[in-house]
Request: fold
Amino acid sequence: MGIQEIPGQAGQVDPVKGTRSETTDTVKGKKHEGDGKEKQDSVEVSPEARALYDAEQARRFEIIREKIHDGFYLERDVTEKVVDAILEDLKKEH
Reply:
């Protein structure tokens, strides 16, 4: 079983603070069907799935912290890639 990244900001861990943003484990939405009636869909994330996701996120951030400690991100080519990724992310927000 693999864990895939969930798009969006809800529930993401702040890599600097090590805390998770506020989120709910249930996502609900409404669909309007052709007959005018509303249909409600929902998805629930099990505690086990949430724990697996949280463990994977913690593992990934620990790897990043180790790379920071080892000076990996101070290498010019790595720094350029990080800056490029940040710029692309900022472009998406506007």
Notes: The chain has one domain: 26-93. Residues 26-93 form one domain.
